[in-house]
Amino acid sequence: MLTIIQRVTTANVTVNNEVIGQIGKGIMALVAVEREDSEKDAQRLLERMLNYRIFADDNDRMNLSLRDIGGGLLLVPQFTLAADTNSGNRPSFTPAASPEKGQQLFGYLRQLASATYPHVEFGQFGADMQVALVNDGPVTFTLRTTTNRNN
After folding, report:
1. pLDDT of res. 146
2. In a 3-state reduction of DSSP, which class is residue 8?
């Protein structure tokens, strides 16, 4: 699985002019499911997002995780993130999981996150979403899991 995480002061997702997910200080994550991904990838990705140290400690060093600060986590499904953009002027979506698999694994990630962490909100798989955020820093990282591959 592939995600872009951003440290935010606030973020929200709107569908049909209705806010369906909103957080204050925390992480907004755009999440893509790739063809080879499994539930183990979703588990590893969630673990990394919750424990990745991107928040400042008392010495202004990135030593604190989302769990440490009790911040919000906004998970937004993002199919286009899995695109192959290495050639040409149009993205190829060959690396992306099928819509059925993407929905299944994002659903699993959603269920796991809800059971694991108390401050989690979500975008809607397959919806036309408007995402608004204030990136704090700006601080942005790409995380990728490959738990089921021989790398």
Report:
1. 82
2. strand
